[in-house]
Amino acid sequence: MFTGIVEELGEIVAIEHLGDASRFQVRGPVVTEGAKHGDSIAVNGVCLTVVDIIEDAEGTRFSADVMAETLNRSGLGALDIGSRVNLERPMALGGRLGGHIVQGHVDGTGAIVERKLSEHWEIVKISLPAELSRYVVEKGSITVDGISLTVVDAGPDYFTVSLIPTTLALTTLGVKQAGDPVNLEVDVLAKYVERLLGRDNGTQDKEATS
Question: In what residue span(s) does the Lumazine-binding domain sit (predicted)?
């Protein structure tokens, strides 16, 4: 489980295409500290499994295999060598939940629609797949490229977020422009509530017709 609090901006340093998968090498000295084979690291909000830890004169990086399903359903397939990525290690048991509960399972992708500068923050409008709109509410939580953010305004096919200077400086949202894709993960609690309400309604319907 992750929290959506990005620990560092990493960099894609190599991509090996393997037919139905790709192997990424990602530089990230903070998240690789103490990491080992089999550990999880979120890359732009996608939970990946560490294959190898590699150290050289340019620093420490890790490799991870990304299957075709993940490449097709997330923005990882659009990354190139040199792309900056948001990195986060899983939350330690007993650690502080600084953002919200993030699984690292991308529900869909959106795109930056527009950015509006203000004196102390920036409003960013992001497109939203119609099937995810029911999970996004004003003042609720959503994960964008692995960043836990609060929804300012929720529309049928978009939402907006307000970004403070720290978020702009320390994450990929500081440099992404209109048209750039972003990974989206909605609040898992909303999906559980929907599931439970659906079961209740199903039970009531059966009782009413019996």
Answer: 1-100, 101-197
